[in-house]
Description:
Blueprint: E1 2-7, E2 13-18, H1 27-33, H2 35-42, H3 47-50, H4 55-65, H5 71-88, H6 98-107, H7 112-131, H8 161-170, H9 175-185, H10 189-193, E3 200-201, E4 206-209, E5 212-214, E6 217-219, E7 228-231, H11 234-244, H12 265-279, H13 287-300, H14 305-312, H15 317-320, H16 329-342
Antiparallel strand pairs: 1-2, 3-4, 4-7, 5-6
Amino acid sequence: MVYRYYDYYDQERLKQITFDSRTHPTEADVWKATERLRHDLNAGTDYSRVERININVALDQWLDSLTGLKAQTLRCYRLSANRIKEQFGELAIEDLKALPIKNWLESLSVSPSQRAHHRFVIRAMFQYAKLAELTERENPCDLIRLKGTTKRRKAIVVLTPIQFEKLVQATRPPFDRLILVTGMLGLRIGEALALQWNDFDERTNIVAIQRNWSNGHIETPKTEKSATVLPVSKTLMKVIGGWHKKADSEWLFHSRRSASGLYYSGTLQQKVLNPAATEAGLPHIGWHTLRHSYRSWLDAAKISSGVSKDMMRHADISTTMNVYGRSLPDGMRDAAEAVSKLLK
Length: 344
């Protein structure tokens, strides 16, 4: 089957696309396959005013407009968009109403946070569509409220210093080092796995957090505030210095079996962290448990709210404790030493 069209952007030349009848047996199949092409050709013309854009096209254009995102973020958006296309893809953007969206979201057998993520993608698509003048209607997602999307489904597990010590002792080498560094610096697991020896300055006892390892990609840290310099306690720096003398790689935690040279957090969760937690007599924990625990240790060491915010590298202090404060470098260094003493 052949689809012919005039390209007014190319001297009004008549062009054609040939479709295999096995994959596009009907005229409707060809019409669907050329929808994005028609929209691009008609953009800015009188035809664009009467053309009904469907959700497939709107989602694709929104995704194409996204720039500067991390690979994992873009991947999550695409997965969500594919799920939305399965349900509403053929529907014209003007015909997608709030109630069908809400009913569909509530029918999904997924976590509340995933429902909220799907709603976010639909909402962002509509915002882009209005900006690109694909529609003039109001955003239907503004009318949708989902229950439970802002509530934490599981209670936060926080380790005491004694429990943390037991966990380190129960973890087989060299992964005990990973738990020690992640816990004593309050790092996200991706930041810990991406550490290199030259990130540490043994003269000034500091470490530069400048990378994150996520889903096979080295990226910048999660937020601008996350990319910073942290103080390292003298005790921990001495231990790290001893490891460095025997190192044979630029990475602090080098994997000889992985093509990337780095470990994957999901694999370590199953094969290292879970067994170690069981042996130590602890409840089920995740890598982020260490970061939550670090936050509680700052409280136990009577560290001020402003310093705690900077040690956790939160952009907003409300993320840390819902109060305001201001920290000084000396206070951060004192905080690192205080937590180190708790964990001795």
